[in-house]
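[Discussion] Sanity-checking designs against the backbone

I'm trying to build intuition for which residues belong where. Below is a structure token string of 398 positions. I'd appreciate it if someone posts a full sequence so I can compare it with mine line by line.
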């Protein structure tokens, strides 16, 4: 259980406090995640918190041993990593729930911070019968998937003490669901601004030489580290470029980081006559050299919340093109450090491209503005402090 100081008032605008609050010094926090593989933004989210909080709290991470999160968290000094599977198969549910109950009894977690539906469900089952001294459960809503059904109502009613919304859009949506009865807190995702920073001119030129053909060093390079699933919308941009007049099309290259595209996606690129204009890097251990090679970053998803990828690219000084979906527009000031375009609209993208190709001289100023925005609003410290305050408020109220 946490070490505590004497009574000290603490106020939070959204978490409902019902008792005198106390400042909590050291916490035992368990992070859970269901992904078996890369894990994308979930992995980045938990890793950022684990690294930052491990020096002053006891941090545990429960995830499948096959996951990138498990491997990466194992390398953080002081973090205890637990191999647990989270899926909907009954044997897994029973086995993992039993394991979680044992972990709760052994370690006396103050907070269990869940990050998906399956791990949230098993955390709910694991705290049955634990009473008022059970761990507080914090749920981060990372995606834009619907929030409906009996299972969701049960989790919201009996196993959620606070929901962290990664953008204001998510908070507004959840305010219309079963989660509305509890605390909804907006804590924007943070970026390591020292790691994701603009490179100098020589390093940028080297990056362009690495990722762009030798005869295309002066083309407009648009790229994304947001991944290659269809819902990321990158095929809309490929289609938009394919409709440009030949002289403009030759001035654009698209660079994509993420899973190798499927055969169907490759066929679609070929059918649009764009095979020679799109570069696929595959999964990268370090996306920074690829991002450095870009003139503009893009996340034009059909379904999204806030996007770590967008914030990483902006932190590296890349103005961002985003779709008008979810919380993506909350990242940019359109026309200053990025642009907002309609989702699923290749015609609108083609029109935007035509305008940008005619006004490339505005990009350096927008690049500086993107970095400035990141420094002001995307701080990792602000993200960690906001999340930690959620924990403190809940435990102080208890």
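Best answer:
Here's mine. Compare freely.
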């Amino acid at each position: 259980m946490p070490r505590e100081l004497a009574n000290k008032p603490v106020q939070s605008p959204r978490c409902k406090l019902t008792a005198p609050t106390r400042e909590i010094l050291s916490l035992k926090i368990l992070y859970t995640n269901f992904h078996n593989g890369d894990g994308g933004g979930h992995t980045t989210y938990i890793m950022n918190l684990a690294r930052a909080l491990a020096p002053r709290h006891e941090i545990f991470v429960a995830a499948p041993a096959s996951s990138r999160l498990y491997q990466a968290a194992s390398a953080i000094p002081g973090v205890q990593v637990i191999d647990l599977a989270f899926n909907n198969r009954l044997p897994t549910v029973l086995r993992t729930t039993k394991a979680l109950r044992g972990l709760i009894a052994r370690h006396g977690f103050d907070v269990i911070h869940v990050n998906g539906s399956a791990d949230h469900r098993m955390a709910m089952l694991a705290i049955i019968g634990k009473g008022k001294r059970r761990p507080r459960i914090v749920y981060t809503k990372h995606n834009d998937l619907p929030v409906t059904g009996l299972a969701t109502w049960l989790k919201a009613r009996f196993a959620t003490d606070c929901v962290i919304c990664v953008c204001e859009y998510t908070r507004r949506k959840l305010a219309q669901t079963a989660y509305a009865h509890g605390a909804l807190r907006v804590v924007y995702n943070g970026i390591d601004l020292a790691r994701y920073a603009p490179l100098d001119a020589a390093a940028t030129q080297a990056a362009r030489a690495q990722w762009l053909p030798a005869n295309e060093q002066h083309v407009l390079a648009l790229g994304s580290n947001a991944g290659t699933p269809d819902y990321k919308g990158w095929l809309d941009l490929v289609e938009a470029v394919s409709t440009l007049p030949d002289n403009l099309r030759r001035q654009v290259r698209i660079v994509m980081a993420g899973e190798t595209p499927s055969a169907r996606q490759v066929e679609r690129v070929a059918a649009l006559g764009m095979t020679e204009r799109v570069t696929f890097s595959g999964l990268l251990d370090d996306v920074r050299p690829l991002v450095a090679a870009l003139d503009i970053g893009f996340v034009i998803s059909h379904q999204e919340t806030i996007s770590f990828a967008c914030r990483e690219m902006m932190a590296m000084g890349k103005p961002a093109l985003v779709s008008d979906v979810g919380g993506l527009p909350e990242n940019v000031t359109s026309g200053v450090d990025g642009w907002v375009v309609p989702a699923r609209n290749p015609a609108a993208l083609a029109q935007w491209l035509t305008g940008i190709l005619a006004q490339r001289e505005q990009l350096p100023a927008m690049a500086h503005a993107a970095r400035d925005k990141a420094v002001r609003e995307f701080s990792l410290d602000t993200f960690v402090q906001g999340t930690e305050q959620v924990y403190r408020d809940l435990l102080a109220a208890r």
